[in-house]
Amino acid sequence: MIKGLRGATIWSEDINNLLPFSRDVLGFKVGVQSDGFVVLSEQGAPPWLALGTHSQVRGRNTDPARHMVSLTSDAVDSDWKRLKGAGVEFIENPTDYGTLRIATLKDPEGNLLQLLQPLT
């Protein structure tokens, strides 16, 4: 039986295109790192986001809406402001959707990520 999310991986032609953004701009901690693969999580514990170099991936994502990674935030507006100030491209500014406040951004390869903040 499927019980929940363990993690997600974003593949790249070169992990060095994505690692500085995820670590230095988004603020993820590197839990496990090997040649061509990084798990962004405290001690590699789930749920995690992984980045890896893959031989079948070339260049920027040509269909960025195909998959989306969602990141939990306790202050979407503050994160949005900080990331915009760092030059991150947003395709959706913070917007309320019922019980969630969401902002959608692009990573350096054009993949979409969402910041999600539960509304009380």
Summarize the structure.
The chain is mainly beta and 120 residues long. The chain has helices spanning 19-25, 76-85; strands spanning 7-12, 30-34, 37-40, 48-53, 68-72, 90-97, 100-106, 112-118. The protein is built from 2 helices and 8 strands, in the order E-H-E-E-E-E-H-E-E-E.
Structural commentary:
The strands form two sheets. The chain has a four-stranded mixed sheet with strand order 1-4-3-2, with helices on one face. A four-stranded mixed sheet has the order 5-8-7-6. It is mostly beta strands. It is globular. It is built from two helices and eight strands. It folds into two domains: 1-58, Roll (2,3-Dihydroxybiphenyl 1,2-Dioxygenase, domain 1), CATH 3.10.180.10; 60-120, Roll (2,3-Dihydroxybiphenyl 1,2-Dioxygenase, domain 1).
**CATH evolutionary superfamily of the largest domain:** 2,3-Dihydroxybiphenyl 1,2-Dioxygenase, domain 1
Q: DSSP strand (E) fraction?
A: 35-45%
Tell me the CATH architecture of the largest domain.
Answer: Roll
- Give the low-confidence spans: none
Shape: globular
* Helix residue percentage: 10-25%
Number of domains: 2
Overall pLDDT confidence: 90
Q: Work out the number of β strands.
A: 8
Distance between the termini: 31 Å
Query: Biggest sheet: strands side by side, in what order?
Result: 1-4-3-2
Helix/strand order, N-terminal first:
EHEEEEHEEE
